[in-house]
Design brief:
- There is one protein chain.
- The protein is of the alpha/beta class and 547 residues long.
- It contains 17 helices and 21 strands.
- The protein has helices at residues 20-25, 43-48, 63-68, 92-98, 124-139, 163-175, 191-196, 199-203, 219-227, 274-278, 286-298, 324-332, 352-360, 377-383, 389-400, 421-434, 461-486, and strands spanning 29-30, 56-58, 115-121, 143-144, 153-158, 185-190, 207-211, 233-235, 256-260, 262-263, 282-283, 303-307, 339-343, 367-369, 407-414, 438-443, 490-498, 504-509, 514-518, 528-537, 540-545.
- α12 (324-332) runs parallel beside α13 and α16 (421-434) runs parallel beside α17.
- The longest helix has 26 residues, at 461-486.
- It starts with 19 loop residues before the first helix and ends with a strand.
- The structure holds S-adenosylmethionine and iron/sulfur cluster (SF4).
């Protein structure tokens, strides 16, 4: 799923700060649309554009302001080392000191100092969860700060979709080992919290809160317990039927708002941890979704991105509730809303009514992220994806039959257990047939609890890397050709970034293409303007504002 202000393609947006580690972290390579032309140039940013990767987002209250005048902005360092000599407090002695009920005399407590720092790893749903967590904290009188150093309460909102993503948080937690007198209260949220549970206290005894993604509704209670002096608090249920709704959400992006309409996942793809970490599917009522959209429109947001692991599996819990397509149309009709996106769609639940809605309502963006995972029916069956190659291609044909051209992007996993050269060839031929506008490709990563764990991990990492490169190369060729065909066309662009170079801006089209363009105007951020494409690269277009 899609990241952000400086974020990626299908995300298409969540606010991410730059991180060198992010590039190393993700084994995805995007054949999607980050810019090569100035504004979002670095490979790091390319990876950040993928919402499902492990690249971290540091939620910075000042980020938007900085981004708006992005000259010379360098992202905050999450941890500025103190001068205190580093002890190894992961030693057995120290572990037992902190373990048990956690009532060790040196375990920091919250006290009156109400500052927090939150760093997010993973998909837009995690980015948005962090926005809601920040809202809960702000509502309790906390102040958000930009560095770990400045914070009393430090939260990591984690991702465990691939192993590298999960490791990332332990590397962050390991930093505190070097600073035994950090005096901070540390919390681990999200999918790693859910997956590892109280084991996190074993591995990092300085952690005080572990709360899984399915238990965020308990966060106010857990915070109250911490404030009351409790030293170890957990929220790890996955059997909840609640969704995470908050009175206040502190959104990172001033123009584009995320809104989760369905949490959890009831599919059981054999490789995927999400059903274990996020629990069963729970949809929000359409009335509650619409109420929030109206508030967002009132607050000046013009683009809404509806989120869900399988967003189109949405089931309105109200009697005679809306279908997903009806919800899309209703959200798009809210005065002030100019664009509605949604991600991620599952092919099985993707029907004609969604295409018809996009066709008839201009505010519904002409972009669908429809992950295929493999072009081989044999592998799809082993992945328990519930469709064949042919059935998937029928969905693509349905989308291509729309009156409006609709951009389609996808996710692919290479190196699934037992994948043969022939299976890879079928994935390549599916790329040719589907003609995607962007693909996020990943090397298979065995995950705890998943069915595919029993299948072993038969493809060596080096071979997975080779297959990944082949898939990316083929997709890059497709994108070069597709983007070249767009040169000369005019796009309506929502401007969401300014280049360091004067007169250079970046924005996204309804089809989620990144356009880097020149304009003699200033103060374009947040505006919808017409841009003519004058050049193309695999991941973006260049252009000029039509005056
Ligand atoms: N719900 C979405 C769907 O059904 O397509 C995908 C959500 S998942 C968070 C995002 C992507 O991560 C998946 O589409 C898949 O390509 C990738 N992914 C999930 N589990 C993986 C694993 N064990 N190894 C490698 N990639 C994985
Ligand atoms: Fe994971 Fe499959 Fe659910 Fe997507 S549909 S979140 S890949 S289990």
């Amino acid at each position: 799923m899609p990241p952000s202000f400086d974020v990626r393609l299908d995300d298409l947006t969540g606010a991410r700060a730059e991180s060198r580690e992010a590039a190393q972290d993700s084994d995805s390579i995007l054949a999607g649309p980050p810019s090569e032309l100035g504004v979002n140039k670095s490979p790091t940013r390319q990876n950040q554009r993928y919402g499902d990767d492990a690249s971290p987002t540091r939620h910075s209250p000042a980020k938007v302001a900085r981004r708006a005048g992005s000259q010379g902005y360098s992202p905050p360092q999450p941890w500025a080392p103190t001068t205190k000599a580093a002890g190894d407090d992961a030693s057995p002695a120290r572990q037992s000191q902190h373990h048990g009920d956690g009532a060790c005399s040196t375990h920091p407590v919250l006290g009156d100092e109400r500052t927090f720092y939150i760093e997010t790893f993973g998909c837009q749903m995690n980015v948005h969860d962090s926005e809601k967590v920040a809202g809960v904290l702000l509502g309790r009188g906390y102040q958000q700060v930009e560095t770990v150093d400045a914070a009393k309460l430090v939260f990591y909102n984690t991702c465990s979709i691939r192993e590298k993503a999960a490791q990332k948080v332990f590397s962050r937690l390991g930093e505190f080992r070097k600073h035994p007198d950090h005096g901070k209260v540390i919390g681990v949220l999200g999918c790693v919290a859910q997956q590892e549970g109280e084991e996190i206290f074993e591995r990092a005894p300085w952690v005080s809160l572990v709360c899984g993604s399915a238990s965020y509704s308990k966060l106010p209670t857990l915070l109250a317990q911490l404030e009351a002096g409790n030293r170890r608090v957990t929220g790890l249920d996955t059997d909840t039927d609640e969704t995470f709704e908050t009175e206040m959400t502190r959104r990172d992006n001033p123009f584009r708002a995320y809104l989760t309409i369905i949490e959890g996942c009831d599919k059981s793809c054999s490789y995927c941890v999400v059903p274990y970490t996020r629990g069963p599917e729970r949809s929000r009522s359409s009335a509650s979704v619409l109420e929030e959209v109206r508030k967002l429109a009132g607050a000046g947001y013009s683009e809404i991105q509806l989120l869900g692991q399988t967003v189109n599996s949405y089931r309105d819990p109200a009697p005679r509730g809306k279908t997903f397509a009806e919800l899309l149309v209703t959200v798009a009709a809210v005065p002030g809303i100019r664009r509605v996106r949604f991600t991620t769609s599952h092919p099985r639940d993707f029907g004609r009514d969604i295409v018809e809605a996009i066709d008839s309502v201009p505010a519904l963006c002409d972009h669908v992220h429809l992950p295929v995972q493999s072009g081989s029916t044999r592998v799809l069956r082993a992945m328990q994806r519930t469709y064949t190659r042919e059935e998937y291609l029928d969905k693509i044909a349905l989308i291509r039959s729309a009156r409006r051209p609709i951009s389609v992007t996808s996710d692919i996993i290479v190196g699934f257990p037992g994948e043969t050269e022939r299976d890879v060839a079928e994935t390549l031929s599916l790329l040719d047939a589907a003609q995607y506008d962007g693909v996020f490709a990943f090397q298979y990563s065995p995950r705890p609890n998943t069915a595919s764990l029993q299948m072993g991990d038969s493809i060596p990492e080096e071979e997975k890397g080779r297959r990944l490169a082949i898939v990316q190369d083929r997709q890059r060729e497709i994108q070069v050709a597709r983007n070249n065909e767009l040169v000369g066309q005019t796009f309506e662009v929502l401007v969401d970034g300014a280049s360091r170079r004067p007169g250079q801006w970046t924005g996204r089209s309804s089809s989620n293409r990144i356009l880097n363009f020149s304009s003699p105007h200033s103060d374009l951020l947040g505006q919808y303007i017409q841009v003519r494409a004058t050049g193309a690269s695999p991941n973006s277009l260049v252009g000029e504002q039509i005056i």
